[in-house]
Amino acid sequence: MDEKTPLVSEKETPPNYPPLDYITAAREHGLPIRQSGPIRKGPQPIELPILAYMKSHRVILASASPRRKALLAQVGLTNLEILPSTKPENLPKTDFGDPFEYVRATARQKCLDIYAQAIKENENDKSKGDPDVVIAADTVIVTRAGQILEKPRSETDHIRMLKLLRDTRVHRVLTAVCCMAPKADASHPGYEIDSLVEETKVFFAQETDGLPDDVITSYVRTREGVDKAGGYAVQGIAGLVMVEKVDGSVDNVVGLPVRKCLQLCEKVVFRQGQESGGESEGEEEF
């Protein structure tokens, strides 16, 4: 064959290659065929003034919780400085009138501790500057009888805790958020601070409805809930095998009510000196 002779003449058309077997079978049975398309890009980041501010300033999350960090990362706050408070969480529960006061006081204590620590460190090392926003949070479980539960202390305590939550069916998750920012006019005390408490009700399945003792024991041995208030992770296995329903904010149960947290940051940064616009708090009947 001459090298200049084309493999297919202009008057000829290339042969139609037989379709793949699965395509033929699908057509024979009248099934629709989805054609491959371009890869879709993920959603664009949400744009809010407070997020723009926090992305360009020094923001400290006073918590070692990877869940709180991940929740804030979902709204674009991936550059947070993590500086957990090492101050003992030993406030006497009997000193407070209700669980709302207790959890709020604990979050406030963490926030003040880390803010003071960051200011002191900046006196010796000016490279970072003073903190522009500090966020602290604390989460507790409140049983139907009003008992405050935090993290389980042992496997035995863990099993006992989950059985209690199951047998009483419904409990409350309280997360206190406290935010601080330096005052623009440097007036006393030099910072703006505010806090709130978010409440969510969580309903557990019952023993006769798929949650017998052996399921609880098996869950405890996964170690998923060892570092969590109440001893369970609603975003993990527990949400599939133990939790029946959630009444309220799910991210609050995970550890941080993100929308309320951003509102609080906006208040201490942009609306300094104004009264808190947070919702009133108080106990409500189950």
From TrEMBL:
CDD domains: Maf. The keyword Hydrolase applies. Keywords: Hydrolase. Its cofactor is a divalent metal cation. InterPro entries: ITPase-like_fam (IPR029001), Maf-like (IPR003697). GO terms for molecular function: nucleoside triphosphate diphosphatase activity. It holds the Pfam family Maf. HAMAP family: Maf (MF_00528). PANTHER family: BIFUNCTIONAL DTTP/UTP PYROPHOSPHATASE/METHYLTRANSFERASE PROTEIN-RELATED, BIFUNCTIONAL DTTP_UTP PYROPHOSPHATASE_METHYLTRANSFERASE PROTEIN-RELATED. This is Inosine triphosphate pyrophosphatase-like protein. The lineage of its organism: Eukaryota, Fungi, Dikarya, Ascomycota, Pezizomycotina.
